[in-house]
Amino acid sequence: MKRMTVSLMAALCLLLSGCSWMDGSYLSITPHRIQTSGDRNESLSASDYFQLQEVMETLVSSGTETAVINLFDYDIPTLEQNLSTLCHHIQKVYPIGAYAVESISCEVGTNGGKAAVAVKIQYRHSRIELRKIQPITRMEDARALVEKALRNYESVLTMKVEQYENLDFGTVVQDYARQYPEIVMEVPKVTSEVYGRGQARVVEVTFTYQNSRETLKNMQQQVQPVFDSAVLYVRGEAADEQKFSQLYSFLMERFDYTMETSTTPAYSLLRHGVGDSRAFAEVYAAMCRKAGLECMTVTGTRNAQPWTWNIILSERGYSHVDLMRCSIQGEFHPMTDHEMHGYVWDYSAYPVCEPGAEEPEPTE
Questions:
Q1: Is the pLDDT of residue 276 over 70?
Q2: Dihedral in degrees, nearest 10, Cα atoms 319, 325, 331, 336
C-alpha cells in the first residue's frame, strides 16, 4: 500500500511540473491555489472527461471568458492528456468552438484544497454574435432562413445545423431573387464558411451588397405599388391569353426603355426604364404569378448571346414570349418552339410549346 502511494505521488509530481502547447491553446499544470470569483464558477465540476467536455462546451456556447472547474474524483494522472485532447475538440470539432474560439489556456491547481482547472478562453466572435446563431435540424431548413435574410437585407446569417450537408447558397439566393424580384432589389455576393467536424456544423453565410440596407428597403417600397397596380390591371373575366397581353401592355407603356444591365433590376426597370432581357422576363413573370397566371423564366441564348424570356400557359397551351422581340414587332406575340429561330435553351427543362402538346407531369 505504501509503495502504491509513493508511485501515485511521483506521477502527480511529474504531472504538476509539465506544460504543453496545442493549436493556439496553452496548458499549464502548477501546484498552486486557484483564486475564484463569483458563485457561478464554484458550481462547475467534472469527475471524468465527458463531464469536463460538457462543461467546456457550455462555457463556449455562452461566450464565457474565464471559469474554474472543480475536479471531483477525477483521475489526475490522465488530466494533462485529457485537457490537450479537449482543447483540440473544442477548437476543431465542436462547431460553436470552431466558429468562435481563438485560443484556450488551462491552468491546473487547487480550489478549496481539491484539484481544479482554471480556464481562460479568447474569442474571435462576440457574445452578441454567438446569441445570433440560429439552431436548425436539416439543411433544408437553411433555405427558409436564407430567404428571410434576403427579405431583410441582412449581411450575415449564422446557423448551427444538426444534420449538415453541402448546399450551394449562391444558387439558393439566385433562385429566390429570380422568383421574387419585387422583394430582392439587389442580388448580393454570397460567401459561406463551415465550422466543426462531424454531422453537426456551424455555417456562416455572408451577403455583400453594393447598396445600403436602407436604400434597398426604400427601393422595395417604391416598386411594390407598381406590382400591385399590375394585378389590378388584369382583373376581370378575360381569357388568360388576354390577361398576359394586358400585363405586357402595362409593362411596355411605362417607359421608352433603355437596354442596360443594372445591379437593381426591378427598381431600375420600373422606376427608371432601364433593364435587360432578364429584368424584363423576371418582373413580367412575377406580375403574372401575382395575377394568378402561370409564367416561368427561361435562360438561354439568342443569336449566341445570353438571353432570358418567358414561357406562359394559356388556353392554347404553353408558348414562348420574348418581351424584347414583342416590343420591336409592336405587338404581344406568343411563339411555338418552331418559331424560336436563333434561340437555344435546355429543352428537357421546360415544357413543349406546340399547339396540342400535352402538359408535363407535375414533379414532386
A1: yes
A2: -20
Is 147 in contact with 174 (CB distance < 8 Å)? no
* 200 lies in the same domain as 221: no
Are 200 and 136 found together in one domain? yes
Segments forming the whole domain that contains residue 335: 214-349
- pLDDT category of residue 49 using cuts at 50, 70 and 90: very high
Long-range contacts of 5-13 (CB under 8 A, 24+ apart): 8/77, 11/77, 12/76, 12/77
pLDDT bucket at 110, cuts 50 / 70 / 90: confident
Does residue 78 carry a pLDDT above 90? no
Q: Are 183 and 267 in contact (CB under 8 A)?
A: no
Question: How are beta strands 114-123 and 156-163 bridged, if at all?
Answer: unpaired
pLDDT for residue 306 is more than 50:
yes
Do both 107 and 73 map to the same domain? yes
Enumerate residues 6+ apart whose C-beta is below 8 A from 266: 181, 182, 185, 223, 279, 282, 283, 286
pLDDT of residue 4: 34
Q: What is the DSSP string of 67-96?
A: EEEEETT--GGGHHHHHHHHHHIIIIISHH
Q: Is 211 exposed, middle or buried (0-12, 13-18, 19+ CB in 10 A)?
A: middle
pLDDT at 75: 84
Q: Which of 25, 193, 196 is nearest to 97 (CA)?
A: 196
Is pLDDT above 80 for 6?
no
Beta carbons within 10 angstroms of residue 90's beta carbon: 24
Asked whether residue 156 falls in the same domain as residue 274, the answer is no
Cβ-based neighbour number of residue 55 at 10 Å: 19
Contact 20, 84 (CB under 8 A): yes
> How many Cα atoms are found within 13 Å in the side-chain-facing hemisphere of 292?
11
Residue 357 lies in a domain: no
Same domain, yes or no: 63 and 95? yes
- What are the distances in angstroms from CA 261 to CA 105, 113, 264, 275? 53, 73, 9, 6
